[in-house]
Design brief:
By secondary structure, the chain is an alpha+beta fold. Helix content is 32%, strand content 25%. Bound molecules: zinc ion. The site of zinc ion (ZN) has 3 residues, from loops.
Length: 597
Amino acid sequence: MRHAIILLMAGLLILTACKKNDELNINLKYDQNLSLEYHEVIDAYSQLADYYAEARLVEMGKTDIGKPLHLFMISGDGDFDPESVKKKGRCIILINNGIHPGEPEGIDASIQFSWDLLENRNDLKKYLDNVMIGIIPMYNIGGALDRSQYYRTNQNGPIYNGRRRNARNLDLNRDFAKQETENARSFAKTFLFLNPDVFLDTHTTNGSDHQYTITLIATLYSKLDTAMGTFFKNKMLPELYERMEKNSEYEMIPYIQMSNYFGDIKDGIMAYNDDPFYSTGYTSLFNCYSFMTENLVYKYFPDRVRSVVDFLTQLTDFTYDNCSEIRQLKDEADKIIKEQNLFHLAWELDRSYSENILFKGYEYIRPEPSEGMRVRGYYDHDKPWTDTIPYYTKYDPVLTVKKPWAYVIPQAWSDVVDKLKYNGITVYRLGNNTDIEVETYYIENAERSERPNQGHYVNRNVKVRTVNQEMPFYKGDYIIITNQHANRYIVEMLEPQAPNSYFAWNYFDPILEAQDFYSFRTFESQLMELLDKDEELRAAMEKRKTEDESFANDQMAQLRFIYERSPMYEIEKYNRLYPVCRLINEPDNLDLEEDPI
Ligand SMILES: [Zn+2]
């Protein structure tokens, strides 16, 4: 990774050397209900980078369609080294656009915002005193290149939209944890490079109708480091809503997820539990204040774009005003995370706690059914209402694990180690063959999802049995020490019960299959001899037969019953044994070599 950053910095120097265009020719078209196409977007940022000394456009790796993932950066003194920028006490904001290319407000809004800022319209350039901006102009390039007027057909503009899924037909906003796309891997590289304080991903939402053009998903404050979460809940979030109300014509409201799925908005709404497969769930694992804007599809596209320009301005304004506190809290959280022992992996809404918020909705009309017609409800724009509604924001942890000193991953599973490396995680390898006493998990329960999800049949409701045992490891097996900035990612991905772990995403499914196969032709008599010799075993089987009718009629199940209680069953010790082991304490004489990233 260090190598990659040096190369990138060299690239920046070359880009810096060849400057500057005389004039700008950027034609934003959102006022005409059009969103810029991919080549127009990259052209606009190239022009801005060529025109302003404070702007740079660089490539940060590939995407699945083969085109590069671009990063546009704005930095006041032309310093584009994030580490150096942070040393100067500045904050970094990263904005991601076009993950769902049919939801393109942020694509156009980010160009408008960058141009306004660089041109110092409305005195915006002052933000560059202590804020550096990073913008991913278009994340899902594969989806964006396929445009149609029929994508998102009930959306109120723009006329042409891109496709939600990417070149591999994956939803990129489900790929941040498992990182199966080039896009996600290039995002991880970008995120690691900037290590931003604030992250925003721009979207559009359908569903219920109301009076707001822009809604906001904020990562759950309870998932953040304690001090960061308190600042987020008590200061950052309330102020962002207040600033939008005061300084924009587009008032903002939390994203509408009804607390009663089959009920009404008036019953209340709940904060969104953003798992790590979402952009905000992933970025917040690394101590980053993370947001998704969700514009409402029924509002006109130009208004949706303007509301995002306003939010980008207010988000930058807040960061500018509170930069030293934001920096200090993140720096402390980055230190704390390395020492943190307990990690919460699953969350449940606390329905006993809610806040009241003022909500501006439209009356939902359910007409009387008439014969032969399907009843269609609708929101009546002539009947607006304003009322306080409950907003449920508190989630409690329902699964907590204590981190081990290190995880041991046999080299047979190096594909997951590669994924850890994409995230900047330091990895060691064993210098020689060695037996180590470790904590292991046997998978007691794992239920496959019935429908495919991102090309997977995800393992859910995972239950484990813990067994301490000595395991043989080999020279070259991997050791992941849990003293890292990415500790939350490490634990979330390697603990099999975590809803987004590599185990959940099927990376370890072969271990769920039986170890060996025995032929009943000869093995059956061997087992029957065993039964003849072992009174206790026979009694246990007879008891089971009387209790379980299907067992009594299933000869194969009976043979299996004997086999599982026979000495031969020892060979099945690897059956359902999760191969990633937990090394609870640091051993005295472990021979380790750092594996280059
Ligand atoms: Zn979306």
